[in-house]
UniProtKB/TrEMBL annotation:
GO terms for biological process: DNA damage response. It comes from Methylophilus medardicus. PANTHER family: SLR1258 PROTEIN. It comes from the Bacteria. This is SIMPL domain-containing protein. Pfam families: SIMPL (PF04402).
Length: 251
């Protein structure tokens, strides 16, 4: 009888141990499964940052174009017109060290004439071209000269000018500071999205930068995409903007 009781007690203890072991295993597996599901959940948000910036350098190009009967006369005409242009630039306070003068180019000049009502191109002398590029941090002088050059054209000097370009020299540092701010903005947005669901935003899984925008401060955009986005070069006052896309784990 004593042996049977001892055997019964041993079996009871073994059963309790097995039950406790199975319960513990179930708890551990449940926690692991919960973490596994949680780690697979994520949220994707966009972050935005922008700030006002100013151009600190201007570029301006002026073109000379002449027509003359011979190549020698064409080159002489270019020299005369360039002297007039350089005198004009001196008067505008744009020093010689701000200028880059391109080489002269020559080519045949064609005019259309009709023979028996049939048009054809006939060479009438030569065309000559030369460009002068100006780069300076004095934006006001460029803006003033761009207006004043109309007087040269009014005096029948064969010059034309492109619209000045107003550039920002430290774009890379502006871009990096905005990326940091846009990333902070992305986490703030993610936190707002999930706070009603009783979960938290975890670590960043991935991030990517969108286009970098340099826009006029007054709004609108520009078609130039030379800096991986929109780059307005027509205004002095601008807005720099960066958008990032970030994926966060949900805990």
């Amino acid at each position: 009888m004593s042996e049977q009781k001892h055997f019964f007690n041993a079996m009871t203890a073994l059963g309790l141990l097995l039950a406790l072991g199975m319960a513990a295993a179930a708890f551990i597996l449940g926690v692991q499964a919960k973490h596994a599901v949680s780690s697979q959940q994520s949220i994707t948000v966009k972050g935005l940052a922008e700030k006002p910036i100013k151009a600190d350098r201007a570029q301006w190009t002026i073109n000379i174009s002449v027509v003359a009967p011979t190549q020698a006369e064409t080159l002489q005409a270019i020299d005369r017109e360039r002297a007039v242009l350089e005198s004009f630039l001196d008067q505008q306070g744009l020093a010689v060290n701000t200028r880059t003068v391109n080489v002269q180019t020559l080519g045949p000049h064609y005019e259309e004439e009709y023979i028996h009502d049939n048009p054809r191109q006939v060479q009438r002398g030569f065309e000559g071209y030369q460009s002068v590029h100006i780069s300076t941090p004095d934006l006001a002088k460029i803006a003033a000269a761009n207006q004043a050059i109309l007087s040269l054209r009014a005096d029948n000097h064969p010059v034309s000018s492109q619209a000045p370009e107003f550039l920002v020299s430290n774009l890379e540092s502006v871009k990096m500071s905005l990326i940091a701010e846009a990333t902070k903005n992305a986490r703030t947005r993610a936190t707002e999205f999930v706070k009603q669901d009783g979960v938290q935003v975890g670590v960043m899984k991935s991030a990517s930068q969108g286009a970098f925008y340099i826009l006029p401060a007054t709004g609108g955009d520009d078609s130039d995409n030379s800096y991986g986005g929109i780059y307005d070069k027509s205004t002095v006052d601008k807005i720099a903007r960066v958008v990032v896309t970030v994926v966060y784990n949900i805990e």
